[in-house]
Amino acid sequence: MEKAVLFEKEKNIAIITFNRPQRYNAVNQDLVDGINDSLSIVENDNDIRAVVLTGNGKGFCSGADMSVFGDKVSSEQRRDYIVEHYQPLMNRFFKIKKPIIGAINGTAAGVGAAFALACDLRVMSKESALLYAFVNIGLGPDGGASWLLARQVGYSKALEIAISGKKILGEECLNLGLTNKIVQIHEVLNDAKKWAHELSVRPTLAIGIAKADMMYSMDNNLSDTIAFEAQEQVAAFNSYDLKEGVTAFIQKRPAKFLGK
After folding, report:
1. Cα-based distances in Å from 15 to 12, 42, 115, 192
2. 204-251 — its CATH code?
3. Mean pLDDT per segment of 10 residues, for the chain of length 260 residues?
């Protein structure tokens, strides 16, 4: 049986691919475990300095596999599953101090949309889409989908998207700030990989600090954020990349960052 998630290392980037194309990469326990295993590799391999997340086949991810839970599973058990499995997984996306680029091929629906928005950056095509499909089967958002969307587009627009149950296609996603780039559909993965390679030669430690700063700032006031930034900067002050960056600037040459 093929793995539900594929992991590939290409120079200094990792490519994580949802691999249940026959189910449009619907999320089951194997897929959750595969993402966790892949992110563990990313965390522990200092040579990996950027990540691409994508889906195999026609879609990025169709959301939770509705065949996972049988009729005998209670509502409370389903609630507990979301808290015990989705919550720690989604938090890992933000704790990893390396940029994660979502190559959103096709549609990212339900919790798949949450996975897409948990990426730091996104590449889509005009045909790609985000779909908050929860309401279409009588559910509210879960897996952090409401938190992620509201912080991207604000309360009213997020609520409109969540209760409409309609696809938000690539160009509208770009206009709303839900994606960074729109490319031709056959170029989504290649463009994301190219971007990841570009970021992989940048000062990875500084990118990780910027990522932590941005996340912190969304839930804290200005004074606390300044203090947090200052504390995070300590690691940068002691880094090789800072010395190299300053030296390269003085010598008027391109810097050769090592990510540490």
Report:
1. 10, 10, 15, 10
2. 1.10.12
3. 93 97 94 97 96 96 82 84 93 95 97 97 98 94 95 96 97 97 97 98 95 94 97 94 94 92
